[in-house]
Amino acid sequence: MATVDAEKKLQNRVLHWLVDDLGYTYLGNLEDIDNTPVKEELLKANLKKRGYGDDQIKIAINELISKINNQADSLYEINQKVYSLLRYGRQGTKDANGHRQTVHYIDWDLDHIDNNDFAVAEEVSVLRYDKVTRKRPDLVLYVNGIAMGVFELKSSYVSSGKGIRQMLTNQKKENILNFFGAAQLLFAGNEAEGLLYGTINTPEKYYLKWKEDKKATDALSEKIKML
Questions:
Q1: Structure confidence by residue, pLDDT tens digits, 198-225
Q2: What is the crossing angle of helices 75-88 and 54-68, to 10°?
Q3: Whole-angstrom Cα distance, residue 206 to residue 193?
Q4: Which of 112, 166, 197, 212 is the residue whose CA sits 20 to 30 A from 98?
Q5: Domains and CATH numbers, the chain
Q6: What is the residue-wise DSSP string for 94-157?
Q7: Cβ distance 14 to 221 under 8 Å?
Q8: Residue 1 burial (10 A CB sphere; 0-12, 13-18, 19+)
């Protein structure tokens, strides 16, 4: 019980940092619903807000989901194709004037970062490949409704390596491989060892310790250093 309480306490601290300090929208505890890597309504709302038409949005969302749910490719291949789509957008057909409009799922322009919607959810329940049992990542980060970051947090009594191994296990086909189709950063950690990060398929020994700029003295940087 002490271990569970300590993990929950750390999870709440990370949530507090993301929501109160970084401005993420809290989507709630999602353990009682079956979650997919794309929250279609959130993505649709963001694309509509940025001026795309209904037909463009429908086609773009369908293509993204199709690439993420690919059952033939490896996770590496899926992630690579999805990243390319997220980075460069979905090209539309040419209009009567020969112009082609690209639907950008994410606004990568740092001067317009607020065009994106950042959200976090906890205890995100995901159906395994067998469509019966579930896995439940501690925290999931969403950009415009797309799951792009995952956290596995442990108490200081449990090695962060266990969180990494749990992350790797979840990426297997028999578990929730496709949920990681768009993931770009995977985090594991505890209060004793700090936060470690990797990407999909990163072996445990290659996870790196997250380090903040020692010269940064602003309030947010100081809070991050204390996590």
A1: 999 999 999 999 987 777 666 656 655 5
A2: 160
A3: 15
A4: 112
A5: 2-37+116-225 (3.90.1570)
A6: E-TTS-EEEE-SS---GGGGGGS-EEEEES--EE-TTSSSEE--SEEEEETTEEEEEEEE--TT
A7: no
A8: exposed
Name the helix (H) or strand (E) containing 77.
Answer: helix 75-88
**Rounded (5°) CA angle 45-48-50:** 115
Residue 163 near residue 149 (C-beta atoms within 8 A): no
Q: Report DSSP letters for 141-195, one per residue.
A: EEETTEEEEEEEE--TTS-HHHHHHHHHHHTSTTTTGGGGSS--EEEEEETTTEE
Both tokens of residue 124? Answer: 């995100």
Of 45, 17, 29, residue with least CA distance to 121 = 29
Nearest to 39 by CA among 109, 134, 144: 144
Structure confidence by residue, pLDDT tens digits, 25-67: 999 999 999 999 999 999 999 999 999 999 999 999 999 999 9
What are the two backbone dihedrals, phi and then psi, of residue 109, each rounded to the nearest 5 degrees?
Answer: -70, 115
What does the alpha-carbon distance between residue 43 and residue 63 come to, in Å, rounded to a whole number? Answer: 13
Report how far residue 89's alpha carbon sits from residue 102's, in angstroms, rounded to the nearest whole number.
Answer: 6
Dist. CA 225–CA 221, nearest whole Å: 6
- Token code pair at residue 99: 């112009």
Residue pair 195/186 in contact (Cβ under 8 Å)? The answer is: no
